[in-house]
Amino acid sequence: MKPVEAIASMGLSVSVAASILVMSLLTVQCLRRLYETYCLQVFAKSSKMNLSHYLAGIVHYFACITVAAGQAPLFCGNQNRESILWTDTRTKIFAVPCTLTFLWAWYEQYRSNIIFANLRKDKKSGQVVTEDHGIPRGRMFEYVSSPHRMCEVIIYTTLVLLLPTKTSV
């Protein structure tokens, strides 16, 4: 068994395919969150965001990308270009189900945000009519109290399954 295969069999190496897939999914998540922030969500004019919460969000997304890139081949361990693990059995097994689960949770999270935004809008005109909070109904709200957070957990769980870090193995 080659050294790279031995390392990969112990779960200590990540394939190029897994790294690219995870970074692509993270990019899709970040772009959707950016769109929601600027085009979808209805913020109260009087609401203020604590600076620490704002910084925590920036650090979170920066850390996610850094972890994904840091686990990529040539970023960790003593690898050389000739022995890069381009794909592996783990990635082949997990790629499709994890990606489909990610996309389902990603979409449900988006739909939850639409429901939240529509609570403050007039149904006919689409104009913001209130800054009050309402009780959301429909879709996943019929089954769980916070589908947005549940989907967030599912999204990041699928990413960890696709890209196990040395500390998560």
Automatic annotation (TrEMBL):
Residues 93-164 form the 3-oxo-5-alpha-steroid 4-dehydrogenase C-terminal domain. One of its GO terms (molecular function) is polyprenal reductase activity. The chain crosses the membrane at residues 6-31, 51-69. GO terms for biological process: dolichol-linked oligosaccharide biosynthetic process; polyprenol catabolic process. It catalyses: a di-trans,poly-cis-dolichal + NADP(+) = a di-trans,poly-cis-polyprenal + NADPH + H(+). It is an enzyme of class 1 (oxidoreductase). InterPro entries: 3-oxo-5_a-steroid_4-DH_C (IPR001104), Dfg10/SRD5A3 (IPR039698). Its EC number is 1.3.1.94. It is a multi-pass membrane protein. Signal peptide: none annotated. It comes from Operophtera brumata (Winter moth). Pathway: Protein modification; protein glycosylation. It is found in: Endomembrane system; Endoplasmic reticulum membrane. Pfam families: Steroid_dh. Belongs to the steroid 5-alpha reductase family. Polyprenal reductase subfamily. This is Polyprenal reductase. Plays a key role in early steps of protein N-linked glycosylation by being involved in the conversion of polyprenol into dolichol. Acts as a polyprenal reductase that mediates the reduction of polyprenal into dolichal in a NADP-dependent mechanism. Dolichols are required for the synthesis of dolichol-linked monosaccharides and the oligosaccharide precursor used for N-glycosylation. GO terms for cellular component: endoplasmic reticulum membrane. Keywords: Endoplasmic reticulum, Membrane, NADP, Oxidoreductase, Transmembrane, Transmembrane helix.
